TrEMBL record:
Record-linked SUPFAM superfamilies: TPR-like
Name of the protein this chain belongs to: Uncharacterized protein
Species the sequence originates in: Primorskyibacter sedentarius
Signal peptide location: 1-18
Assigned keywords, A-Z: Signal
Length: 181
């Protein structure tokens, strides 16, 4: 009886398993529309407002527990509790391995820590799950710059800017390194 109770307590304390996480909301149609709007935006301010709407889509977690973990990690990252943020994003990925933003946010934490190799792995995972994640593309470009892989960085940066020409990362674009925008 005591053994069964201890096992039940242990199971209740284990993290929620990935099969419990529903699929992430499919915002493909809306994101495609926002990318088209960003490409046509007449001003930088209009482009930034559209970018903010993209972030709202990416940060829409699959369910309430995932949203709570994501939000906790974001709060910790903003407070520069990078270890705490990384732990939260690890939990989010364990719970929802198909949710792109968990990888993207963990990549950002690793980028801040200047662990560019780990950041790059998670950015690639983000883009496998969300190929039009403009911010992840821009982050990948910056990460490649951090790794001194400048030629690759310029290619990726151009891909991101083709989707959203108003990204602040455009200041890293080197003229004459490929097709100009």
């Amino acid at each position: 009886m005591i053994r069964a109770s201890l096992i039940a307590i242990g199971l209740a304390a284990t993290p929620v398993l990935a099969q419990d996480c529903p699929p992430a909301p499919d915002h493909t149609e809306r994101l495609t529309q926002l990318i088209a709007e960003a490409q046509q935006a007449p001003t930088e301010m209009a482009g930034r407002l559209i970018s903010n709407q993209m972030w709202e889509l990416w940060a829409d977690a699959p369910d309430e527990p995932a949203q709570e973990i994501l939000d906790a990690g974001l709060r910790k990252r903003r407070a520069f509790d990078l270890l705490g943020a990384r732990t939260d994003f690890d939990r989010l990925i364990d719970y929802c391995p198909d949710y792109a933003e968990g990888y993207n946010q963990r990549a950002f934490v690793n980028f801040i820590r200047q662990d560019y190799e780990l950041a790059l792995i998670d950015l690639d995972r983000t883009l496998e799950r969300s190929p039009h994640h403009v911010a992840a593309l821009a982050g990948k470009a910056l990460t490649l710059i951090g790794l001194q892989r400048d030629e690759e960085a310029q290619i990726v940066l151009r891909q991101a800017l083709a989707m959203n020409p108003w990204l602040t990362e455009r200041r890293f674009l080197v003229e004459g390194t490929g097709e100009e925008l």
